[in-house]
Specification:
With 417 residues, the chain is an alpha/beta fold. The chain has 2 domains: 42-315, Queuine tRNA-ribosyltransferase-like (TIM Barrel), CATH 3.20.20.105; 323-414, no CATH class. The chain is built from 15 helices and 18 strands. α1 (54-61) packs across α14. It starts with a strand and ends with a helix.
Length: 417
């Protein structure tokens, strides 16, 4: 299989608490090109990064890789249609300047199980603060909300968010769909629990995830190369266990013994302890395999995760907040709808090499207040470029041996308010 991971440089620095940094700069080799890590992965949920062309993603953002969503592509247009295109990268024309396909990921659909099932009605995402957790006494069954997904030991039965029709995912079905989608890297089917779920349920979920991991591996090996691309795909196992140290470590140890090509760190976290949970896992996972943190895109979380051994990230947040007028700057996040930006003639980006340096904050404020589509496009380009560049700069700092200083200086400026 044309997939491997090499570590170019390991950080030799100490963290503020005296522990050794786990940061590393590496390269993930895939059948469709290399991914230099640490790297932020643009999310193209339905084989499109919202409001951007593939050329925008490649050239203006500088993305090396795109991640698509198994659940959504299963519902629309369906895996058989994606397969006829030669996989989702070919369908969306995610190619380099030579016309060659570029690297891609797909998730397993497990997060949709979380958001439509166990978490429905809790009013929280996959990350909760300790205040949210202590303020609620959560039971396994959601109070008065109808779940759109019901989990059992064999798989998940769920209703389509499009038309309410009933469908079912099992580990085998998830593997079959992801083989048809044709991504270079994809994930074993897992259950992502709510951060408010009690420990008893978290334990039940990780035990179920172990069995699903075994079944995912077996089905992946049975299927062989993707018929969509003619290439062998890399399968990542997914670590679960919520915010519980013993469960996270158990999950990492168990999945480390399985023949996965890499690992995703999934599930839910308490906001305050996420970096600790990442370290618990990465101190156990095989060092020679890549580690992906699923669904995390806050700059501070990314920087802490990098120094605790994470290689890649994906998150819908940069494009989602962009569509609502929020953009990242080196001085923190700002909302371009605010009146103070009506006459702000400073460029959206202070870096002259960025595409969005051409546009003033005043112009962006005008576009958003006028409900112009271009507003979302430019803001999305800007936010994706910001996180992509953050990872590129982190990589350079690791190689130079200056990551700790880089991180501290970025945080001091970005979060100074």
């Amino acid at each position: 299989m044309n997939f491997s991971f090499e570590i170019e440089k390991r950080s030799e620095e100490k963290l503020s608490d005296g522990q050794n940094s786990l940061a590393r700069a590496g390269i993930i080799h895939t059948p469709h090109g290399d991914i230099k890590t640490p790297a932020f992965i643009a999310v193209g949920t339905k084989a499109t990064v919202k409001s951007l062309t593939p050329e925008d993603v490649r050239d203006l953002v500088g993305s090396q890789v795109v991640l698509a969503n198994t659940y959504h592509l299963y519902l629309q247009p369906g895996p058989s249609i994606v397969k006829k295109h030669g996989g989702f990268a070919s369908m969306m024309n995610f190619k380099n300047e030579k016309g060659e396909l570029m690297p891609t990921f797909t998730d397993s659909g497990g997060f949709q199980v979380f958001s439509l099932g166990q978490a429905l009605g809790h009013g929280v995402s996959k990350i909760a603060t300790s205040e949210e957790i202590s303020a609620r006494e959560v039971k396994e069954e959601t109070s008065n909300h109808e779940k759109l997904a019901v989990i059992d030991d064999d798989g998940v039965t769920f209703k389509s968010v499009i038309d309410g029709s009933e469908h079912r995912f099992t580990p085998e079905i998830s593997m079959q769909i992801q083989h048809d989608l044709g991504a270079d890297i994809f994930f074993a089917f897992d259950e992502c629990t709510s951060p408010l779920a009690p420990k008893e349920y978290q334990l039940e979920a990780i035990n179920r995830t172990y069995e699903w991991a075994k079944r995912s591996l077996a089905e992946h090996k049975r299927l062989g190369v993707s018929e969509s691309t003619g290439e062998m795909q890399a399968l990542f196992g997914v670590i679960q266990g919520g915010s519980y140290e013993d469960l996270r470590k158990e999950s990492a140890r168990t999945l480390s013994e399985m023949d996965f090509d890499g690992y995703g760190i999934g599930g839910s976290f308490t906001k305050e302890d996420m970096n600790k949970a990442v370290r618990w896992v990465n101190e156990i996972l095989p060092e020679n395999k890549p580690r992906h943190l699923l669904g995390i895109g806050e700059p501070l979380d990314m920087l802490l995760a990098i120094e605790n051994g994470v290689d890649t990230f994906d998150c819908v947040s940069p494009t989602r907040i962009a569509r609502n007028g929020s953009v990242y700057t080196k001085d923190g996040r700002i909302n371009l709808l605010n009146a103070k930006y009506k006459e702000d003639m400073s460029p959206l980006s202070e870096d002259e090499s960025w595409y969005t340096h051409k546009y003033t904050k005043s112009y962006m404020c005008h576009l958003f207040r006028s409900d112009e589509m271009l507003a979302a496009t430019l803001a999305s380009i800007h936010n994706l470029k910001f996180l992509t560049t953050l990872c590129e700069d982190a990589r350079s700092a690791i190689i130079d041996g200056t990551y700790k200083t880089f991180k501290e200086e970025f945080i001091k400026r970005y979060y100074k308010k």
